[in-house]
Amino acid sequence: MTRKLYVKSYGCQMNVYDSHRMADTLAPEGYVETATPDDADLIILNTCHIREKAAEKVYSEIGRMRVLKQEAAQNGRRVLVAVAGCVAQAEGKEIVRRAPSVDLVFGPQSYHRLPDMLARAAHGKVIDTEFPAEDKFDHLAAPSKVATRKRGITAFITVQEGCDKFCTFCVVPYTRGAEVSRPVEKIAAEAARLAGDGVREITLIGQNVNAYHGEGPDGRAWTLGKLLHRLAEIPGLARLRYTTSHPRDMVSELGDSLIAAHRDLPALMPQLHLPVQSGSDRILAAMNRGHTRADYLKLIERLHAVRPDLTLSSDFIVGFPGETEEDFQDTRRLIAEVGFTAAFSFKYSPRPGTPAAEMEQLPEDIKNVRLQWLQNDIDRQQAAHFAGMRGRTVDVLFEKPGLQPGQICGKSPYQQAVHVIAPTTLIGEIHPVTIVEVVGHSLSGTLAGVPRLEPQSELQSEPQYAAAGA
Ligand code: 5AD
Ligand code: SF4
Question: Which of 311, 384, 430, 457 could bond 341 through an S-S bridge, CB–CB 3.0 to 4.6 Å?
Answer without folding.
Answer: 311
